[in-house]
Amino acid sequence: MNKILEVNNLSKDYNDATGFNVHLLEDISLEVTENSITTILAPAGAGKTSLLKILSGIESLTSGQIKINSENQRVVYIPSKPSSFPWYSVKQNISLVNRDDEKIKSIIELVGLEGYEDHFPDNNSVGFRFRISLARALAEEPGIIILDEPFGKEIKPVTLQRLYELLLSLKSKLGITFLLGTSNLSEAILLSDEIYLMQKEPGKIIDSVQISFDNERNVELMRSEKFIDYRNKIEELLKNQKEQSLSNITI
Amino acid sequence: MKLNSIQKKIILKNRFAFLSVLLFVYILLFEFILPVNKILPKPSLLLDSIPVLFSEYNLLSEMAITTSIIYLAIAIGFLFVWMLSFSLATIVNRNIGLFNNLRLFKNFPAFFFAILFAFWFDGSVFAELLFTTIVSTFFISISFMNSAITLPTEYKDAAKSLMIEKKEFHNNITWKYSLPKMFDELHRLHYYLWVLVLIFEFVSALNGFGSIYKLALNYNDLSVIILLGIIIALLIWLGNSIIDFIEKKLIFWKA
Description:
- The complex is a heterodimer.
- By secondary structure, chain A is an alpha/beta fold.
- In chain A, 31% of the residues lie in helices and 26% in strands.
- In chain A, strand 6 (144-148), helix 5 (157-174) and strand 7 form a beta-alpha-beta unit.
- The model of chain A has no long low-confidence stretch (mean pLDDT 89).
- The mean pLDDT of chain B is 89.
């Protein structure tokens, strides 16, 4: 498979408000394969968001190299908090990026928002707002979509399950490449083809695990033996690291 | 806190009852028990003063001057801030220190500026409009910058990632995000301008409601002073209702 994104020895330092130099990310190397979901599994405060923002060109790096091996070099970042604009309808949110009506219509169908074209994002509906953000990202026709803790903690289990299915179907039907940042281990195993484990202080990749299932991916897999094996394996890897640096990962 | 329609109806009903009681007590006390006093005029005298207010004090033309100046100043101020908003947002993002310094002017009382302007311009209608527009533009600019500075990072990141151009980002995101907070502040500006304009007109004693007050004070005409107070209160209430109506129609989202 084609390596669409290669990151070599990426580091990030910055000065905080008191002028103290913070060594946030150290020597990060990873690869993202085309038409896959690659996950960075890290505890809160490890610098996951900064890493994802650097990879999408929003923030700068201190040293290292980022290489995109694709004709389509567009990388779109979807922040962890809802970023759809509440003053625009679903359709207007997407048309900020792409004004082609036919394209907008097909994207709306793709993310399951048909019938809601003229609805406005409700502040309380995380799932609805995530679909709009995803639709907006798809309208850009990017090479990679980066998702930073996309589902949060306030989302209902049923909605969460539907969003997992949406991501998996976008990957399998349209061949979209996703890079996901999360602290939820079960979510990472269910969705990913490869998981990079990241520690904090400084943020550093400590290991990676390839994930593959014989059956089609859906939430039922979470009860399978193979899923539990993966979970045990990753937990074991995490235990071998400094306890405090990975303590916030949700099992 | 936004109230639902039932809560609003209850509040309105309570206010109406309260005003009715006040009116009843006023009529009873000052028409029948204490008809001659130096506190408040007899209700019948108040009614007799209404035609005087129109004929002797030129109520309609003075009202036209005061209200036009206040609402024109708000409209022009809003238009100016809309036109300048891109530069204002750039200033506030680049130079937070300057923005904080500008905020100091909000602590000066309206009275001070009114006196100063009356002193400089000798109280012409044009000077009054100019002065009120400057104050309104400044006030709305500050409330826009206050709001723009709190634009959530996720909006900025999403726009940056989607390569939305600076100007488009400003018009579609920063400006729209700031509108609800700016409208909330508009109520405060509305009261502020009424006080400011009344003081200005009272000091310069040439035009508007303020000049009627000055004249009524010179004539010791308590009925007119009271009547004018009631009319101004009604006009402020009407102005607030119009601002609420526009807000409800145009700004349906929360910041």
